[in-house]
Write a structure and sequence with these properties.
By secondary structure, the protein is an alpha+beta fold. It has a single domain, classed as Endonuclease/exonuclease/phosphatase (Deoxyribonuclease I, Chain A). About 25% of the residues lie in helices and about 30% in strands. It has 7 helices and 14 strands. Strand 3 and strand 4 form a beta hairpin. The longest helix is centred in the middle third of the chain and has 22 residues. The N and C termini lie close together (about 5 Å). The relative contact order is 0.16. The model has no long low-confidence stretch (mean pLDDT about 95). It comes from Novosphingobium olei. Keywords: Hydrolase, Magnesium, Manganese, Metal-binding.
Length: about 260
Amino acid sequence: MTIKVASFNINGIKARLPRLLEWLEETRPAVACLQEIKTQDEGFPAAEFEKIGYHAIWHGQKGFNGVAILADGVQPIEAHRGLPGDPEDEHARYLEADVMGLRVVCIYLPNGNPQPGPKFDYKLRWMERLRERMRELLAEERPALVIGDYNVIPEDKDTFSVRAMATDALMQPESRDAYRRLLNDGWTDAIDLHNPQGGVWTFWDYQAGAWQRDHGFRIDHALLSPALADRLQAAGVDKTYRGREKASDHAPIWVALRD
């Protein structure tokens, strides 16, 4: 018996609802974490997911950001809404829930562009706060995963072109160092573990024929606590969904865990 947990930056849940429902029905993850739902709470299409057997919790925001956690046949139990550590941060980027014996954390980490500047500073502060929360989860020794759009290209092998991305906030030394600190604390990068050679992308820009030329990079990640890393059976990217009509610019990622 395995539990499949997936993540999909949907880039606008209303604009891409048919694609999202299609993916859910075709791949049937037990848990699906969504980012960039780009809708206020009252506009979230929960009823559409109920029709195909998924129960949801969500943290929305008008026009941008927004995260959600869906579970097949069970109700996720919300644990945290919003990343602790800055009461003035109102961005809808963090949602944490208990579901199927797991602590599931869905994140949409700030992009940080343009850098240098206040958006990049915000990104680095957010990553510091995330590390604090993740260290608390480690201390609890629970089976946890922090999954979603990290907006970090961890290593050179994770982009089609180091030169093209050299000045981007996703690939700055500070961003990479902050990500590496999470791994050094004891979290396992599931996609990287199963694809150590790199060359696996999760995002292709809409511009300049990036999809057609396979000019992508890996910024969607699943980090597993030690208690969960021992149960990891497989991890991957549902790449073909990026090629469908009116697709998101991200492809879904997933991990398969021994129950």
